[in-house]
Amino acid sequence: MSAAHLLNVADVTRRRAGRLAVEGVSFCLNRGEVLGLLGVNGAGKSTTLSMLAGALRPDSGHIELDGMDFARQPAMARRLLGWLPESAPLWPELSVDEHLIAFSRLRGASRAVAKRAADTIVARLQLGDLRRRLAGVLSQGQRQRLGLACALVHDPALIILDEPANALDPVQVGELRRLIRERAAAGAAVILSTHVLGEVVAVCDRVAILHEGRLRHDAPLHDDHGSDIESVFFGIATGAGA
Amino acid sequence: MSIAAVARLEWRRLAVRPLAWALAALTIAWLAWTFVLGLGQFLGAQVKLAGIADAPGFTDLVAIPLLAELVKLAFLVVPLMTMTQLAGERRAGTLALLASTGLSPTRIVLGKYIAVLGWLALWLLATLAMPLLVGAESTADWGKLAAATLGTALLLATLAAIGLACSAATSFPAIAAAMALIVTLVLWTIDRGAQAAGLSGGFLGWLTMATHLQNLLRGLVVSSDLIWFALAIALSLILAIRRLGADRERQ
Fold first, then answer.
1. ipTM value of the model?
2. Full residue range of the structural domain in which residue A71 is found
3. Which residue in the set A74, A87, A108 is minimally distant from B2, CB to CB?
4. Among residues A28, A69, A82, B108, which one has the fewest Cβ atoms lying within 10 Å of its Cβ?
């Protein structure tokens, strides 16, 4: 595998509940690139993202982030990534500020650095009015924004977003898209898993399509020989194309 | 460093959780009532005790029974305090999120263990304050009280480690609490069958938690008792760490 790419995923396979959830998946990701990960329910997207986030270990294959092997240096590698899982899990008894400071400090930041990082991300995601509010009383959209803030607070090199637009209103979705492009322009690589094709078209540089655990398509968004991503996706999902 | 960050996070969560405050308030009230009753009986028996050579004093009749009462409460309170620590987090999805920050299972388990130990230490100190305040004005046997306090502290630390191991084993906090209670009761009474058969001591006697606590409550600090508690704590924490590590393979 080459260390020139920020992320190298090589021949990763993982069984779940007795069946192959992900089989032989390989792809690379460069700094500044936004990859849209598409697939129908059960295609293996969440399993793939969980492996990238370090929550699941692959049965076989390798994952390298910035030249660090996930199997050999899991702690170092995972410190470079920010992950927003699908349901934005949070601690209901902690405030917005406490979440952000905790996520920085868990990654080794001092209190002063964590406080500064929290101030920055609060300003960027317009969470200022909610800082002292407990996560348990936030609306679904506010929880999603807090989850996003927790994923971004330490300025990660790789950002993994699983359905980040869930429960966001159209204005917030637009803001999310700007934020993703802004992070990519700053050199971060982003993986965006979504069911919304329009989301991918609006924000991604590349599209990967998983189907039945296998990577069936991986190409730049505008390099499909004239065919739009919608027809490619439906072709794969319905078995009419590859 | 990150162990301290986990401990701080967990401590903060404990501090704002109603369960921790409710348990602390109810148990301290019960222990205070037990202490007042014990002290009243002790004062009422002064004339009788004065006539007995080497009669038991304040420590034997008031302070150590109070610690024994705390131990009884701990069988229920500690599993309730530890049940959500890993099981609840796993169920809510925050455990995977915690692991994604680069924390190893060892750091997560130790951080959470330190946090619950902090709460238990405050609980023990609040209880101990009662005999200490009265004992300072009387003739308490400080050595015996220190040994009994050490025994109680070790027992609380052991129950917390067992609770954490049970919490690591499931995604359901209620099941974790029930498992911890059962494991504790089994460890407490494991030699009862042998005793009924007229056998005492031996391996089963050594395995029993009560054997080791009784020595310390009597003021005897024996290294084998300390080793038993250290082994029980280490084994429980290792089981919790291994189970947490296996999460990444098992899901």
1. 0.82
2. 1-80+197-242
3. A108
4. A69
